[in-house]
């Protein structure tokens, strides 16, 4: 099992991203170094963190001690809501990069649009300047819905490379996904396993496919994301699950199996609505 099995998704700025990565939301800062070390040993090369997770330093230590050449890694972090603006963005970026111990970042995201603050356009212009500096290669957004994306495209110059949104079988956000596809913005699916908040892995549409392929229900759901073209980074603290979630390149879901899972859509958001996070 090697990282070379992971397909790369082409971004609209010429860079590419490993389609399968490892997320560290709710990974305890004290355990992050060990957990990310495990993930890198298992073969993950794409790590998704955020300033608000409080674990950038642990991610940085695991990267430094791994000895993996920097160009083989893809590291994402996110600007927290309190740091939106202009100078505050530059300062927050510097601090994130320092905590990660990196010379450059692969992808920097605006974590939430926080529409009540009304600063995401200004923030994005600061992101454009960061990108020009070369210290971040690609810039994107997270939790942006169609109206937020429309405004960004109308008022700024650079099209985000990705929109990282809550996306799993009960909540597939078809309007945002379609808008993104039209504008060459890739979708990153957060909470790809529904954060364990509904019995996704027990649904017959998932369990039957798992049985048919001799795989686990989690592997089926990850496979569904990959075949839909989503970028995913499921999270687990447990090494055996990291291995399981990475072992998804030796089978393919049929059109019927894919369709049955896609039909589970029911606007079943498991976390906050982006307009309500400010
Ligand atoms: P997830 O859907 O990946 O669910 C994680 C939970 O699923 C784990 O706690 C674990 O208990 C369970 N799990 C993992 N592998 C399993 C397996 N093989 N079998 C059974 N259960 C398994 O949810 P997530 O961690 O919230 O999302 C993934 C990543 O997305 C995060 O770590 C983070 O990087 C990112 N994220 C971003 C935002 C955002 O606002 N941009 C919000 C939430 C998460």
Automatic annotation (TrEMBL):
Q: Which residues bind substrate?
A: 111
Q: Which UniProt keywords apply?
A: NADP, Oxidoreductase
Q: Which InterPro entries match?
A: AKR, Aldo/ket_reductase_CS, NAD(P)_OxRdtase_dom_sf, NADP_OxRdtase_dom
Q: Which domain of life is it from?
A: Bacteria
Which positions does the site annotation Lowers pKa of active site Tyr cover? 78
The residue ranges of the NADP-dependent oxidoreductase domain are 26-265
Catalytic residues, chain numbering: 53
> Which GO molecular function, any one, fits this protein according to its record?
oxidoreductase activity, acting on the CH-OH group of donors, NAD or NADP as acceptor
* Stretches assigned to coiled coil: none
Its family? Belongs to the aldo/keto reductase family.
PANTHER family, per database record: 2,5-DIKETO-D-GLUCONIC ACID REDUCTASE, NADP-DEPENDENT OXIDOREDUCTASE DOMAIN-CONTAINING PROTEIN
Would you tell me the protein name for this molecule? Aldo/keto reductase
Query: Origin organism of this chain?
Result: Agromyces sp. G08B096
Q: What is the lineage of its organism?
A: Bacteria, Bacillati, Actinomycetota, Actinomycetes, Micrococcales
